[in-house]
């Protein structure tokens, strides 16, 4: 994947692809395992992954899949305390989910690009304002 390299924040949508795993998820995992991608995730995105994974695989299945990812040692988890002010600002300004704001706020603090699975309709009208506010790259695998 041409847009994936170095330190990057992964949104929940990308993490879901990895625990399924879809073709896209496998491709991202390969980038991580080859050390081309250094994934960063927020605690909030991890919580989102757990409840979405629970709906797909049941609680035990979701926990097993998520723990397998985390035990790999490749993922850096960032806690809410690191991003809370930017997270609150993002939610105040933009009509997007707490999880989306969490990923973007993490990217903003560390100046890392953020990767989402697809450009959702709520992003279309505000994507340029979001990029200006965060002053980072916001990438989508599917447009």
What is the strand tally? Answer: 5
Name the shape in a single word: globular
Give the percentage of residues in beta strands: 15-25%
**Spatial strand order of the main sheet:** 3-2-1-4-5
Please tell me the overall pLDDT: 95
Query: Could you spell the SSE succession in H and E letters?
Result: EHHEHEHHEHHE
The chain-level structural class is alpha/beta
Low-confidence stretches: none
Rounded to the nearest angstrom, the distance between the terminal CA atoms is 14 Å
CATH third-level topology: Rossmann fold
State the helix count.
7
Total number of distinct structural domains: 1
Could you characterize what this model shows?
This protein is of the alpha/beta class. It has a single domain, classed as 5'-nuclease (Rossmann fold, 3-Layer(aba) Sandwich). The chain contains seven helices and five strands; from the N terminus they run βααβαβααβααβ. The chain has a five-stranded parallel β-sheet, with helices on both faces. β2, α3 (43-71) and β3 form a beta-alpha-beta unit. α1 packs across α2. It starts with 5 loop residues before the first strand and ends with a strand.
């Amino acid at each position: 994947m041409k847009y994936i390299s170095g330190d990057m924040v992964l949104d929940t949508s990308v993490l879901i692809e990895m625990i399924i795993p879809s073709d896209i998820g496998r491709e991202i995992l390969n980038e991580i395992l080859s050390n081309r991608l250094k994934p960063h995730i927020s605690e909030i995105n991890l919580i989102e992954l757990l409840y979405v994974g629970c709906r797909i695989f049941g609680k035990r299945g979701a926990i097993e899949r998520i723990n397998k990812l985390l035990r790999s040692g490749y993922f850096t988890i960032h806690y809410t305390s690191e991003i809370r002010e930017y997270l609150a600002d993002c939610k105040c300004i933009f009509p997007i989910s707490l999880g989306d704001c969490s990923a973007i706020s993490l990217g903003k603090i560390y100046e890392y690009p953020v990767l989402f699975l697809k450009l959702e309709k709520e992003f279309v009208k505000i994507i340029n304002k979001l990029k200006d506010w965060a002053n980072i790259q916001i990438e989508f695998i599917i447009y």
